[in-house]
């Protein structure tokens, strides 16, 4: 096995999976989805479906105990409401601190878990779908290029130089991710982004807003709507 | 709360706890012990006892599912035998690769989990007891100074500059750690290091060998024997 892909079930990580499969072939790729105690299971169901679509091995694990003490609004046990406005609007109010949907150091935890599993499965590469729109204004500091570089160094060194990270979209916008995905024929109809777990995407949470804008910039319809 | 200390129940992390308590006072310190699927519970019981001794809040969580696919000899599900020889003897046979008791990227995973929890508990510092003897010859690459620096940068950046790592022993030998601990009056009688889970320490696994040597260099008796 060559590459392990962190797969949330959203459009960024699914594009990442499509890219890894196109580079290495499905037998050299596995996908890892981690449950962190989110309010709904829609995105994990989406992850399973896209892994099935690509016929790659799918690993799923629960790490929600780590977030027991967090009040992040994405978590099932949290009393915080998910904001229904864009990241830009949220960031105006909070002077450079992460947004309320920032799950504390989630990407660091997920990448470390991925590194442990990559070592066990003999994968030398970990792919994940961080992009520059999520890092903008410090909304999600664990999506930034600086974080990626440091985490890559930590994983490379701490694994005895056996595993490296690949974040192919870290300097791309979400619209550029979708452009790449449309070229690759990524099955966006199977994905789920909305922070709420309704029957249909709410259309007004920050990730719904960003997803719609990314498709619009590509003059494309979102096949999941 | 100021500092979160990763506490395994061995002498290095317990010395770290003693140091953090002496610096900040017991009310500003909490200890985190993670179960990773090890063959015995002796070290976790020791961790609980030392947290009680220092009267600090003790958090304990199970992350063993992450190591499901690992064959590391420390793990309960592994068929591998724990080696009964020093790290130096083991390293002679394996050309710079980690020892069989290296749990894949365990320190990276533990520090990432600690960062998530530190953010939730309002701690700005994470202490852990990595030292240079464990990093020597690449036995445990996730104990090295290079790993520490990169991981610190990843956690600082990825947490939105809210959390930093402290590895006070990263350039010290284990004997120097014990020297410091003896000065601080660390309750070594309560600690457990042996990789085997017998009634008494086996005396012949690599960590028993290192522990005995560290006390001997300080002309001190090990109060746990």
Topology of helices and strands:
The structure is a homodimer of 225-residue chains.
Chain A lengths: L2 E4 L4 H14 L4 E7 L6 H13 L2 E6 L24 H6 L13 H16 L3 E3 L4 H4 L9 H14 L5 E3 L7 H11 L21 H12 L8
Parallel strand pairs in A: 1-2, 1-4, 2-3, 4-5
Helix pairs in contact in A: 1-2, 1-7, 7-8
CATH topology title of chain A: Rossmann fold
Shape of chain A: globular
Q: How many separate domains of chain A?
A: 1
In the CATH scheme, the class of chain A would be Alpha Beta
Write structural notes for this entry.
- Two copies of one chain form a homodimer.
- With 225 residues, chain A is an alpha/beta fold.
- The first copy, chain A, has a single domain (3-217), classed as HUPs (Rossmann fold), CATH 3.40.50.620.
- Helix content of chain A is 40%, strand content 10%.
- The first copy, chain A, has helices at residues 11-24, 42-54, 87-92, 106-121, 132-135, 145-158, 174-184, 206-217; strands spanning 3-6, 29-35, 57-62, 125-127, 164-166.
- Chains A and B meet through helix 4 and helix 6 of A and helix 4 and helix 6 of B.
Summarize the structure.
With 225 residues, the first copy, chain A, is an alpha/beta fold.
Key attributes of the depicted protein:
5-stranded parallel sheet, globular, about 220 residues, alpha/beta, Rossmann fold, homodimer
């Amino acid at each position: 096995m060559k590459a392990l892909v962190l797969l949330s079930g959203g459009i960024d990580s699914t594009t990442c999976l499509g890219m890894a499969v196109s580079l290495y072939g499905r037998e050299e790729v596995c996908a890892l989805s981690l449950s962190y105690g989110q309010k709904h299971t829609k995105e994990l169901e989406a992850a399973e479906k896209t892994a099935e679509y690509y016929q790659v091995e799918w690993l799923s694990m629960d790490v929600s105990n780590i977030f027991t003490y967090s009040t992040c609004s994405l978590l099932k046990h949290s009393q915080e409401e998910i904001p229904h406005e864009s990241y830009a609007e949220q960031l105006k109010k909070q002077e450079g601190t992460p947004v309320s949907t920032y799950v504390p150091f989630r990407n660091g935890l997920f990448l470390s878990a991925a590194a442990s599993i990559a070592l066990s499965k003999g994968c030398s590469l970990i792919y994940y779908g961080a992009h520059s729109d999520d890092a903008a204004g410090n909304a999600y500091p664990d999506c930034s290029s600086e974080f990626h570089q440091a985490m890559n160094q930590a994983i490379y060194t701490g694994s005895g130089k056996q595993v490296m990270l690949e974040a192919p979209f870290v300097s791309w916008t979400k619209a550029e991710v979708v452009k790449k995905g449309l070229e690759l024929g990524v099955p966006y109809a199977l994905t789920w982004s909305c922070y709420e777990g309704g029957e249909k995407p709410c259309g007004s949470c920050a990730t719904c807003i960003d997803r719609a804008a990314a498709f619009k910039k590509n003059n494309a319809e979102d096949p999941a709507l």
